[in-house]
Specification:
Elements (H helix, E strand, L loop, with lengths): L4 E3 L2 E3 L5 E2 L9 E5 L6 H14 L4 E5 L5 H11 L8 H25 L3 E5 L2 H11 L4 H12 L6 E6 L2 H11 L11 H17 L4 E5 L4 H16 L4
Parallel strand pairs: 4-6, 4-7, 5-6, 7-8
Antiparallel strand pairs: 1-2, 2-3
Helix pairs in contact: 1-8, 2-3, 3-5, 4-5, 4-7
The protein binds thymidine-5'-phosphate.
Thymidine-5'-phosphate (TMP) binds next to helix 4.
Amino acid sequence: MATTIRVDSGLKNECGQVFNGLGMTRGKFITFEGPEGSGKSTHIRLLRAFLEARGVEVAVTREPGGTPLGEAVRNLLQHDQSEAPVARAEVLLFLACRAQHVERLIRPALDAGTWVLCDRFDDSTMAYQGYARGFDLETLSGVNGFAVDGLRPDLTVLLDVSPGTSRARLAARGAAPDRIEREQDAFHVRVRDGFLALARREPGRFAVVNTEREQGAVERDVRAAVMDKLGIRN
Ligand code: TMP
């Protein structure tokens, strides 16, 4: 009979699978991060198909967004012309979306055994509002901790892209850039460097994937990271 030990949000068996209170395997929480134009939506879609083909139940979501409140704030943050938020308000709006998202969608899904693939999460706050806007990282980490209430990603896939390629991909997309995409090049350089610094600080949680290669190679690296770091077999 499998022995169980108590972990923060469930029970863990000998294979390292975590069971929730109803005896179901707890889902994995995988976040995708990266500068603008790093290909997150494409690689989330491809990973979703890969996991679903193996019988994993998957929910795909994004930040800011994921809930009706989050999507409304996303629109305010990115496109509303009436009044741009001041930098401190911007931080708090991202965090308000996150608190709602964690409590209403992400944690219930994980508890029900669903894997959650999230397009951006709290590393974006550290990279954009911390490294790029200049807010103190410790302060941000404290208020973010309040918003996420202890939830951490099991794995963070950082899709890396140079500022030049990022700019070219955004231009090729043809759509008008949003408020943050319109920031100066130096801002986007700090975002990219910030993500890489975060990954160096937590190599166990992060998988850094260079996206300036053909899509199939990137896709294979993302799968390998998921299988390796989360202990999935083919
Ligand atoms: P995107 O996910 O479509 O790229 O748009 C989200 C934008 O919001 C992107 O410019 C990054 C930015 N952002 C932050 O500045 N801080 C955050 O905490 C999050 C989640 C996103």
